[in-house]
Design a protein that fits this description.
This protein is an all-alpha fold and 103 residues long. It contains three helices and no strands. It has one domain (2-93).
């Protein structure tokens, strides 16, 4: 449960990191955050039946996937895009020798 609580605070702050670059993604994330908080509150009160446990645990799994996708879009994708752009730039800047005609 300790890992869940730590993750709960991290995912609650995730829209703050997404807000500038990916506003729609941040807004899409808010219902998942509400579901995770509901899961946590129901777990603490003991009012969690089996169906709610399955549904809200699905929210948790979806949130883990969403967090990894968000991390990729924020950190990895710009770096990959920059590396591809620089690779294309270096390929274009290499002069190709004129074709040699052999008679």
């Amino acid at each position: 449960m300790d890992v869940f609580v730590v993750y709960l605070f991290i995912i609650t702050a995730t829209p703050l990191f997404l807000w500038i670059e990916r506003r729609r993604l941040a807004i899409f994330h808010i219902p998942f955050i509400a579901g995770i908080w509901a899961y946590f509150i129901l777990y603490l009160t003991g009012a969690l039946d089996s169906m709610n446990h399955v549904i809200l645990n699905s929210f948790f799994v979806a949130n883990v996937l969403f967090a990894h996708l968000s991390a990729f879009l924020i950190y990895a994708y710009p770096a990959i895009k920059k590396a591809r752009a620089s690779a294309e730039l270096t390929e274009e800047s290499i002069p190709t020798p004129p074709p040699t005609v052999v008679e």
